Amino acid sequence: MLWQRNYDVSLPHNKIPDALASLAKKMAIPAMPSGEEFKPEAAIVNYYGPSMYSFSLKIANALD
């Protein structure tokens, strides 16, 4: 099955940081068909600021 984007790349956005893209590629290796390379284009990132620190400790093991 061919995967297709379902987001508008013409909207303002930031490039995924190289370190995050590299990590995503490494994590995807076991799931990729032989000879194919994962190319991350988007990410969902949960950010918990300092005021959420104690709360984030409680949900650290949550699975999204």
In short:
The protein has 64 residues and is mostly helical.
Question: What features would you describe in this structure?
Answer:
The chain is extended and about 45 Å long. The chain has 64 residues and is mostly helical. The chain has a domain of 41 residues. The chain is built from 2 helices and no strands. The longest helix is centred in the middle third of the chain and has 11 residues.
Portion in strands: under 5%
Given as residue ranges, the uncertain stretches (5+ residues, pLDDT < 50) are: none
Helix content: 25-40%
Give the oligomeric state of the chains in this entry, treating copies of one chain as homo and distinct chains as hetero: single chain
Envelope shape: extended
Give the integer mean of the pLDDT values.
77
Ends apart, CA distance between termini: 24 Å
Number of distinct beta strands: 0
By secondary-structure content and strand pairing, the structural class works out as mainly alpha
Order of SSEs: HH
- What's the tally of helices? 2
**What gyration radius follows from the Cα positions, in whole Å?**
15 Å
Largest sheet: none
